[in-house]
Amino acid sequence: MKRIFEILSLVFGLWSCVPEPLPVELDEYEPKIVVASQVIPDYIMMVGLTRSFTVLSSAGYNRGGDSALFESILVDSALVTIESASGTDTLIKLSPGLYASINELENPGGHYHLKVYDYDLKESITASSTMLQNVPIDTIIPKLLKDGEDFSVDINVKFKDVKNEDNFYVMSVFSKNALLTPALDVNSFFNNGSNNIEYQELFDDRKIDGKTISKDLTINHVDPTDSLVVTLSNISEGYYSFLKSRERSGNLISEITNEPINYPSNVNNGLGYFNTHYPAIRFIDLSALEAD
Question: Domains of the chain (ranges plus CATH)?
Fold first, then answer.
C-alpha cells in the first residue's frame, strides 16, 4: 500500500509540472489553384483544377471523410479558357475539377495560354506552354509471363531520339484496374477514365542524342484479361523538373495531402504545371498474348 501511495504521489507531482496550454494564433491559410493538364491525341485537351491546402486549414480536418475532403479541393465553378493561334477556346466542365477543350490542337511549336478564374476563391491564374514535337514509338514488344497463378509482362519499347535537340522524356504504363476518382485522374486513356500508373520513368537524351533508344520494363501482377497503355512524351525541361520533384515527394497520398509549394511551376499566382506535351500511345491487349 505504501508503494501505491508513492507512485500516485509521483504521478500527481509530474502532472502538476505540466504547463498550461498556450493560445496560438495562426494566420489564415490562403489556398492556391493547382493546375494539371493532359493532351489526349486526336481527341481533347484536359485541365485538372484543385485547390491547395495544409493539415492546419479547414480542408485538412473534420470534413466528414475522404469524399468531403476531395469535394472541398476540387474547383467546381470556374471560367477556363485557352488561347492559341486558332483563337480562344472556353473549356467545358466534365466533372468537378476537370475541364476539357475539344478544339483541334496546334502543330509542334504551337503556343497555348491558359487563363482560369475561380468564382469561389475569386482568384485568377495564367500559364503558357509550347507544344513540342511528338516522338513516335517505333516498336513495342510485350511478353506475358506466368509464375504459378501470377502473371507479369515484359515490355521492350524502342524509339528514335530527336537529333541535335535537348530532349526530356516521360514513359508511362497505365492499367485499367484502379478505382481512382476520375476528376483527379486526367490521364483518361481508357473509356471510363479509371486508369492507374503502373510504371513511370523520366530520362533525357544527353548521352543518347539522335540514337535509337531501347527501354526494357516489367509490370508485375497483371490480369491476363486486362489491357495496358504505354505512353511516350517529349516534354519540356520545366515539366521534367516538376515531375522529378513530384517523384521525390512520395506516393499518391502524400502528393494529394501536401501542398506542392516546393515544386517548379509555370503557373502565375498558382501551383502545379500547365503542359501541352503530345504523347505517343500504344495499347497492349494482354488477352491476345500467350503466356510463357
Answer: 33-130 (2.60.40), 139-236+279-288 (2.60.40)
